[in-house]
Amino acid sequence: MEDTFKYLRENKQLLITKKKSALKFGDCVSALLAPENENVVKSIDNGKPEKFNVNVAINTTNLMDSHDDVHLPGIWNKSIKENKNVYLLQEHKMQFDKIISDDLKVKAVTMTWKELGYNFEGTTQALIFSANIEKDRNEYMAEQYLKNRVKNHSVGMQYVKIDLAINSTSPADKEEKKIWDKYINQIANKELAEEKGYFWAVTEAKLIEGSAVPIGSNFATPTISITAEPDKSTPETIEPEQSTQKSLADIIFINKKSIIN
C-alpha cells in the first residue's frame, strides 16, 4: 500500500488534471458488489401508454464508486442552476435516436439511503431526473422503462473541484490525510475506501447529461417511480434542494393517482 501512496503522492497533480480535463461518464470500470435495492418499481399494466413519467436517480453522493471517486453533497449545486439544457440519454450517446427525453426537471435532494432502497445508514444527496417520456422518441428505451428493466443510471459530467484523500500516517501525506478524516465517516461503503486506503473527493462537477445504462460505476442509481401520466406542472427554476431532507413522495413528485406501488 505504501507503494500506491507514493505513486499517488508523486503524481497527484497529473492525475487530478487528467480527471478534470476529460468528459467523464459514470460507467462501470470494475465490478462492485451491489446490494439489492429493496424498493421494487412495478411495470405499468394499462395498455402501454404512449406518454409517461419516470423519476430516476442519476447519481448519489457519499458512495465510493468503481472509479475510486466519492461525489460529495453540493457537487451539483452550481451546475444545475446554470445548465438548463439537460438530456436523459441512452448510454451516454448524444445522438438524436438515443435521446430518451429532454422534457425533464432536475433536483439535488437529500434523502436517507433507506428511502432510496438501500440498507445503509446516513444520507445521500441524490441527483433526481423527473422525465416525461414519449414512446415515439426512443421506442426501445421507453419499453425498457415500462417493463422495469432499467436498474441503473449514470451521469455525464466534467470534474471542477477534486482532491485526493489518503489514509496515511506519513508527514508527506498530511494534507491528504485531512481530506480522508473529513469525509471517510460519511461514505456509505467506507469499507471499500478503507481497503484501498485512498479515494478521490469530488466537491464540484459540471452536469452535462444523465443516462440509462446496464451497470453504472455508482450502483445506487435506480429507477424510483414510473407513472402513467406525464408531469404537466409548470416548469420550475432548476435549483438544488435546500432542505436537509424530504419525504420520498416530495422527492419524486408523486401524483396521488399513480398506479405504481
Account of the protein in words:
The protein is an alpha+beta fold and 261 residues long. The strands form two sheets. Strands 1, 3, 4, 5, 8 and 9 form a six-stranded mixed β-sheet that branches. It has one domain (2-251). The chain has helices at residues 2-10, 12-21, 77-82, 113-116, 139-146, 174-183, 190-196, 248-251, and strands at residues 24-25, 51-60, 69-71, 87-90, 99-101, 104-112, 123-134, 152-166, 198-213, 223-227. The longest helix is centred in the first third of the chain and has 10 residues, at 12-21. The model is unreliable at 235-261 (pLDDT under 50). It is elongated and about 60 Å long.
Secondary structure elements and their pairing?
Elements: H1 2-10, H2 12-21, E1 24-25, E2 51-60, E3 69-71, H3 77-82, E4 87-90, E5 99-101, E6 104-112, H4 113-116, E7 123-134, H5 139-146, E8 152-166, H6 174-183, H7 190-196, E9 198-213, E10 223-227, H8 248-251
Structure in a nutshell:
The chain is of the alpha+beta class. It has helices spanning 2-10, 12-21, 77-82, 113-116, 139-146, 174-183, 190-196, 248-251, and strands at residues 24-25, 51-60, 69-71, 87-90, 99-101, 104-112, 123-134, 152-166, 198-213, 223-227.
Which short descriptors sum up this protein?
261 residues, alpha+beta, six-stranded mixed beta sheet, 10 strands, 8 helices, four-stranded antiparallel beta sheet
